Every structure is written in C-alpha cells, then in structure tokens.
Amino acid sequence: MSFIMSIPGLSRIPYAPSDLSPGALMQSFPAMMAISLVAMVVISVVVMNNGKQKPPLANPPRWNQTTLSKRIEFHRNGRAILSDARKRYGKQPYRLIVDAGECLILPPEYAVTIRNNMDLSFAKATEKNFSGHVPGFEMYAALLHEKRLVQSVVQDQLTKFLNVLTKPLSEEATHALDVIFGQDAEWKETIIAESILQLVARLSTRVFLGDTMCRNTAWLEASKAYTVASFTMTLKMTALPSSVKFLVPWFSSEAKNVFKHGATCREILTPLLTQRRALRAEARRNGKPEPVFNDMIDWFEQKSGGEGYDPALFQTALSFLAINTTSKLLTHAITLLANEPQYVEALREEIVRVLTADGLTKAALANLTLMDSALKESQRYRPAAFLTMRRQARRTVVLPDGLVINKGEQIAVDGFNMSDPTVYPDAHKYDIYRYQRMRANVDRSTVSQAHLVSTGPNNLSFGHGAQACPGRFFAANEVKIALCHMLLKYDWELAEDTDLEARLVFGETEALNKGNKLRFRRRKEELDLEGL
C-alpha cells in the first residue's frame, strides 16, 4: 500500500513575498521591519507569560528532510533516536518528532507532576495516535465517552468483583489449558505468543461476556482477528497526517479487512445483547426482579442505562485493551521463566504453600509475593514501551515549574528509570526476587512501589495517577491464576533458536520475537487446583 502526498512548503509561510529579487526585497523592507517588530513583541510577551522558552527539538528535519520523513524515521528506529535525545538532554524536557508527530518528552520525575491532571488526556492521545476518528477504527475512541463508560465500569464493577471472579477464571483456565496445551506427557512445541493470546482471550471473555461466549469459537476467532488486524493497521497509518487518514479505508484492503472482522464481531454479539435486553423487559413486565449476570455486558448496560453507547463497539474495545496488554505480559513472563528452571521451582513451592493455606482466593493471590515480583520484573526487564503516560492537552496547561503545554500538544513521560542502573542495581539482569526484596525495605515509599499493581516514576508499565490503567488489578489476578495452572501442570523450556533479546516492533516499542517457541509437557501437579 502506498500513499501520494504533497508536502507544503514556502506557500504556507505567512507574508512570504512571491518575488525574491534584491529590488523586491528592498521595497518590502519597511513592511518586513514592521512585521518583525510586532513579531518580536508578541514573542516577548509569550516568553514572559510562559516563564520559559519552548523546549528544544531533539531531531529537527535537515534541509533535505520533511517532518513526515522524520516521523517515518522514528517509526523505523525510534529506540536509538530516543536514546540519543535522552543522553543529550538528561533531565530536561525536550520535543521529539515521533511516529505520530511532534511530542513533548518529559523526564520520569514529571510523572508525579502530571499524574492527576485531567486536562492532559490519555483518551484524546489514544484516539489520535490510534486513528479513532477513522471509520472502522472507532473502538480507539471509546475512552472518550462522555460518561467515561469503560473506565468507570472497570473501576466500579470489575475491580469490586475480583473475589467473585477468582473461581470462574480458574475453572476456565483448566478448560483452556486442556484445549490449548493438552494432556500429553511427551515434549511438544508451541509458538508461545499465539497460545497465550488464545488463553488470555478465553479467560477475559469468561468475565466480559459470560461462560458461553468464552467457548464460542466464532467469537474468539473474530475478536482476535479484529484486534490484530486493527492494531496492525493503526501502526501502518501512524505516520500519515490525520487529514488524509480517512481515505485509507477506501483504498487499503487491510483496512477493509478491519471492517469485515468488526462486522463479524457485531453479528455474533448482537443476538446475545438482544436476548439480555428481552429478558430484562420481560421481568419488568411481570413485576419480577431483573436477571443479574455480573459480566461486562450487564455492567455496561447498568452504567449507561442502555442508551448512548454502541454495545458491540465497547465490547471489542474492552477486549483489545485487556487481551493485547495482558497476553504480552504473560508471554514475556513464561518465556523468561522457561530459561530459569530454578525460578520455576521456587514459584511452584510458593504456589503450593500459599494455596494450601489460603485456598484459591483473591487474598491468596495477593500473598503470592514472589510471583507478583516475577511479573513486575518481567515488565521492567522487557518493557513494552519507553514512552509512557501518553497525553494530549485539552487546554493550555502550565506546570508548577513554568513549563507550558499548549492546547492540542502531545506529551509522554520517558520510562527509562526501569532500565536505569542507578535506580535498579544490575538492571540488565532478570531477577524475580528484586521486588520481593523491596517489600522488606524499611522505607515505606519503597515498599509501596514493590507490588505489580503499584505505579510510580520507577515503573510506568501501568501509567501513573488518575489515568493509570484501571484494569491492572484484574489483569494481575488473571495472570497469576494462569501462571498457577501453567507452572503446576506443565514443564517448560526454551525451544531451539528461541531468542530472549527484545526486538524492535515500531517506534520505541519492543517485544520478544513473536515467533518464539517453547517446549512443554504435562506433569503431575502437586496440588489439585480444581478442588480448591
């Protein structure tokens, strides 16, 4: 797929004379002087009002480059460009042309400064960066709902019901692992990213859509296809100007596939949504209590009053937000652990000890401190992205130090602290005991940052503050339940040629090789998880 675009040049500059001869320039000199004086006054006022000059641009286009070419350059080699800018500017804010356009990069310490500022919107940044205004990609604008529907349902209902959801998630893990990995005691191989994506999709759907849909093969395949196709296409559109993105669905076969997968998801979900609403209506007519299902369909209906939102769109948006990030965390964790058999044995010992004493409950999952530490270390050791806390200013914001963030400006916080050896000794080493040791620290602030769901400048995997990932509490429990089953029921080791080095995906984001294979075989578990 290719796009033909014209790059505006001199014609965009106000007051640019059409005749550039010396005589013409001399004739226009008085007017140019007047304009220059006015401009100097305006600039002086702006600088005085802002308190500081505009932060420097780290990667300006050269004379033979355009901003678009710099965006493409970052898309291809963002990690190196970001690293170079970080070395030059240190703790100083600077601007960087990233794949989505110009972005103000803030040092890690600014995470605390901006954490609760709702004028700096994560939802607006998501809509812009993932093309939520383009037909077929509307799910990336779902977070902008006037009632903050996704955020409020996750915070108010999903998190509240975590204890109730533990048993259903464990039941589904038993079924899903049997389907995906089987019962064979002989060694087999699997592309682990694909298998984990299936597993997380099944577990998440059990909670989001109930015990029928999580085993509906058509839904599982359609939602996975839609998630992968839409995300892949948004990455390809990233460097395009927003003004031309709406044309993509007309000319791109890949974008048309996104439409197709989205329509399939809607076709599968609509009968279930209609049935639920009919059951409620019938109960009201008969003067009986309305049925309660305690899943995302139910909670979205309650919060919205059944109006002002597209149920199918919001379910697919939720599936993307949950499945994409959670599967990556679990994939990285099990792959890294497969290379460290001593860590696996220590985790198995903890699982058996804690679950024997406490059962399989929300409290027991919280007491799996080594597993919690291992998962957080997986995030730190192989972060998905270094530019975190992406925001777009809804209006001009002046920070306490005088830094001005203009309306419409995009910002991000550099998450480099996760790899900084001055913050984490032996930062290059994968150490699952790292955060467990932090829990024993006498400093309460250190202890508070040692949990998987904790957020702060030293680990921004879930963001920080009022707009931090609201689903992290559910994700933490979901991944822990999955790991309990995977580690007790199977042996794991790296297949030949499996690569533990991070690979550049796009921009500054990285991941393990998506083609990595693990070897696995069924083992006799020390504890009957189904009997707990």
UniProtKB/TrEMBL annotation:
SUPFAM superfamilies: Cytochrome P450. The keyword Thylakoid does not apply. Its cofactor is heme. The keyword Heme applies. Keywords: Heme, Iron, Metal-binding, Monooxygenase, Oxidoreductase. Heme binds at C469. Pathway: Mycotoxin biosynthesis. One of its GO terms (molecular function) is iron ion binding. Belongs to the cytochrome P450 family. This is Cytochrome P450 monooxygenase-like protein. It comes from Clathrospora elynae.
